[in-house]
C-alpha cells in the first residue's frame, strides 16, 4: 500500500425489498471508475442489508484500511436529490432486515449517545456542490431513516468519532442515471476531503502558536 496516499472507503448496499438492483452500490461502482484523484486510495465495499453483517463489517473496514474517511451510500425510495445525512441515530430499529432479524435492543450501541453528528459540515458541502454546476441536486437531511442506512451510519460515526459520512441516492432513473450519481458522489466526497484538509490545516496552525 502506498503510504503517501490517503485511504478513503466508500460502501454501497446490496439488494433488498423492491430494490432488486440497489442504486447505491451501482453508484459506488461508477465512482470507483472515476476515482477520487491520484492522492486518494479508494476502496469500495458492498454491504449486505443485515444488521449483524454491518456490526462485523464496519469495524473491519476501519481496521483494515485506517481510512481518513468512510462514506456510506444508501438508496432511498423517497429521495429525489442526492442527500447528505448530518447524523446517525441510536434508537428505533424495528424494521426487519434481509434475514428477518432486528436487534433485540432496537438500538445500535447499547448505552451510546442518542445521536452522533458527522464532523463534516454537510451544509457547506451541499452549497459548494450545488454551486459547481454539476447538474445533480444535493440536499441535507437530519434523519437517515432508522433502517440499515441509519444503523450503519451510527455504527461508523461511533467507531470513528464522527469521521464518517452518509449519502442517500434516489433509485436509478428517478431522475438520475448511474453516471450522474457516480459524478455526484465524486464531487461530494472531494468536497468533504477538501473541508477535512482545511480543518486539519487550521489545527496545525494553532499548534504552532502553543
UniProtKB/TrEMBL annotation:
Its main location: cytoplasm. It holds the Pfam family Peptidase_C15. The active site is at 85, 149. The keyword Cytoplasm applies. It catalyses: Release of an N-terminal pyroglutamyl group from a polypeptide, the second amino acid generally not being Pro. InterPro entries: Peptidase_C15 (IPR000816), Peptidase_C15-like (IPR016125), Peptidase_C15-like_sf (IPR036440), PGPEP1_Cys_AS (IPR033694), PGPEP1_Glu_AS (IPR033693). PROSITE patterns: PYRASE_CYS, PYRASE_GLU. Transmembrane segments: none annotated. The keyword Protease applies. GO terms for biological process: proteolysis. It comes from the Eukaryota. Keywords: Cytoplasm, Hydrolase, Protease, Thiol protease. GO terms for molecular function: pyroglutamyl-peptidase activity. Monomer. Removes 5-oxoproline from various penultimate amino acid residues except L-proline. Belongs to the peptidase C15 family. This is Pyroglutamyl-peptidase I. It comes from Oreochromis niloticus. The gene is PGPEP1.
Amino acid at each position: 500500500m502506498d503510504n503517501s496516499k490517503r485511504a478513503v472507503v466508500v460502501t454501497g448496499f446490496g439488494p433488498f425489498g423492491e430494490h432488486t438492483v440497489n442504486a447505491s452500490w451501482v453508484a459506488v461502482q461508477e465512482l470507483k471508475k472515476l476515482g477520487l484523484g491520484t492522492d486518494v486510495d479508494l476502496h469500495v465495499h458492498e454491504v449486505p442489508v443485515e444488521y449483524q453483517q454491518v456490526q462485523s463489517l464496519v469495524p473491519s473496514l476501519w481496521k483494515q484500511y485506517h481510512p481518513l474517511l468512510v462514506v456510506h451510500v444508501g438508496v432511498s425510495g423517497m429521495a429525489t436529490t442526492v442527500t447528505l445525512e448530518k447524523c446517525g441515530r441510536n434508537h428505533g430499529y424495528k424494521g426487519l432486515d434481509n434475514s428477518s432479524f432486528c436487534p433485540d435492543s432496537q438500538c445500535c450501541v447499547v448505552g451510546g449517545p442518542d445521536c452522533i453528528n458527522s464532523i463534516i459540515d454537510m451544509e457547506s458541502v451541499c452549497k459548494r456542490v450545488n454551486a459547481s454546476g454539476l447538474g445533480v441536486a444535493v440536499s441535507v437531511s437530519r434523519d437517515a431513516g432508522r433502517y440499515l442506512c441509519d444503523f450503519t451510519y451510527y455504527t461508523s460515526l461511533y467507531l470513528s468519532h464522527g469521521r464518517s459520512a452518509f449519502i442517500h441516492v434516489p433509485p436509478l432513473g428517478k431522475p438520475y442515471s448511474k453516471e450522474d450519481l457516480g459524478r455526484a458522489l465524486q464531487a461530494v466526497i472531494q468536497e468533504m476531503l477538501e473541508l477535512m484538509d482545511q480543518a486539519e490545516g487550521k489545527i496545525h496552525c494553532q499548534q504552532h502558536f502553543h
